[in-house]
């Protein structure tokens, strides 16, 4: 990654993380992730968002600052829009290099600077709508955006250029080479479309009502460019990512897309053998199916698919009187991420007695899922059972279409 001027006296800097680590210690990022920071120069210089000491990110940042002839010690303000350590982990080292910098953040942000970094020096609280004059006709305005992603979060806006520094909001997984939306071909756009949804489902989905509030709050600004702290910069068409995030946020309360995600696990193939009639039943109604097997896939991927699907099927056997554990773990994650308002079917085999359905009903009781009658069978799936499964798949697909109004 190299420093790029994105507007007059505003520069994109940062680092691509591609060392194979998990994001937040749990989410796979096979195509990496970018940690974007920004320099805004007036008479004074502001650095917006930082990096963590991860895959040589601080070295990358230092090199890019040097390429702009900026000495770290001469940065006047450090704007911390959000205190999650992917954007602040390098703070203590940064303060050693620049002990006189003024940190700008919200009141809750100040508390977190103390909590994470045991630092109370040089922190100045900014209020919602407060402005900072950098001189030379360059000004920053701060707007609180609580819970997008953490409660202390704010965004920063430069009215002159129309650039919104949105931190996690409007972000995506994936490294960034050419940073602007207008530099990408269709294939790259499709990649960031997929990875912005996966990022949203994994990281932001739980806070969807706050995303909607933030989008409404910022609607009065003349936003000409979205400069997030993960992923690409939206210069040609910022409304694409704003509307995409609005749609993602609306998925929480549904209906989401008229599609069905099948999450399945099978011990000896007896539940797996029911997938073909299930898929045939769904497809007979022309509804798109997404198939995910656990534990073979990390939950990040079925979570993403399930988040955008109005319909879900859980195909799993009973295991020791309860749910097949890998599917149970995924269902737990779906609950934690507030996947609500879904049309749902559960099917599966059992050996000597059931039990999976009882646990499924108990755990999902407060998920606000509308569940069809399940199909369970002992051992192998015979032809009569396959017919029932075909019919339930078809019924679920019809229900999803009605729910989505298609
Ligand atoms: Fe990119 Fe919530 O931190």
Helix content: 25-40%
Which ligands accompany this protein?
MU-OXO-diiron
What is the domain total for the residues?
2
Poorly predicted ranges: none
> So how many helices?
11
Coarse morphology: elongated
Helix/strand structural class: alpha/beta
Total strands: the figure is 20
Gap between N and C termini, in Å?
Answer: 44 Å
Question: Could you say what the CATH topology of the largest domain is called?
Answer: Metallo-beta-lactamase, Chain A
How does CATH name the architecture of the largest domain? Answer: 4-Layer Sandwich
Q: Which radius of gyration do the C-alpha atoms yield?
A: 24 Å
The residue-averaged pLDDT reads: 97
Broad CATH class of the largest domain: Alpha Beta
Let me know the largest β-sheet: 7 strands, mixed
Q: Which strand order spans the largest sheet, edge to edge or round the barrel?
A: 1-2-3-4-5-6-7
CATH superfamily of the largest domain: Ribonuclease Z/Hydroxyacylglutathione hydrolase-like
Strand proportion, as a percent range, falls in 25-35%
């Amino acid at each position: 990654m190299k420093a790029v001027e994105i507007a007059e006296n505003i520069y994109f800097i940062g680092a691509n993380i591609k060392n194979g680590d998990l994001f937040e210690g749990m989410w796979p990022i096979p195509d990496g992730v970018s940690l974007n920071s920004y320099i805004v120069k007036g008479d004074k210089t502001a650095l917006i968002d930082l990096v963590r000491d991860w895959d040589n990110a601080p070295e990358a940042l230092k090199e890019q600052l040097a390429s702009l002839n900026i000495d770290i010690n001469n940065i006047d303000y450090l704007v911390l829009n959000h205190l999650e350590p992917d954007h602040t982990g390098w703070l203590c080292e940064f303060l050693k290099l620049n002990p006189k910098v003024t940190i700008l953040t919200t009141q809750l942000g100040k508390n977190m600077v103390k909590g994470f970094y045991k630092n109370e020096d040089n922190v100045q609280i900014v209020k919602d709508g407060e402005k900072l004059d950098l001189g030379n006709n360059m000004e920053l305005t701060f707007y609180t955006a609580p819970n997008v992603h953490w409660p202390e979060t704010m965004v920063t806006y430069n009215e002159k250029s129309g650039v919104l520094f949105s931190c996690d909001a409007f972000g995506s997984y994936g490294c960034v080479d050419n940073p602007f939306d207008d530099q990408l071909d269709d294939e790259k756009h499709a990649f960031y479309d997929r990875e912005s949804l996966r990022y949203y489902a994994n990281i932001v989905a739980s806070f969807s009502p706050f995303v909607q509030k933030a989008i409404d709050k910022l609607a009065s600004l003349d936003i000409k460019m979205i400069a997030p702290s993960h992923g690409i910069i939206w210069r040609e068409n910022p409304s694409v990512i704003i509307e995409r995030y609005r749609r993602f946020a609306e998925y929480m309360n549904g209906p989401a897309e008229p599609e069905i995600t099948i999450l399945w696990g099978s011990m000896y193939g007896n539940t797996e053998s029911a997938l073909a009639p299930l898929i045939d039943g769904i497809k007979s109604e022309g509804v798109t199916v997404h198939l995910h097997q656990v534990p073979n896939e990390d939950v990040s991927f079925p979570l993403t698919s399930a988040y955008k699907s109005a319909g879900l099927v859980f195909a799993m056997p009973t295991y020791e009187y309860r749910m097949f554990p890998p599917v149970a773990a995924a269902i737990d994650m779906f609950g934690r991420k507030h996947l609500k308002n879904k049309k749902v079917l559960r099917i599966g085999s059992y050996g000597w007695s059931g039990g999976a359905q009882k646990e499924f009903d108990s755990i999902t009781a407060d998920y606000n899922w509308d569940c069809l009658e399940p199909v369970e069978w002992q051992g192998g799936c015979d032809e009569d059972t396959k017919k029932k499964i075909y019919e339930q798949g078809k019924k679920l697909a019809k229900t999803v279409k009605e729910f989505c109004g298609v």
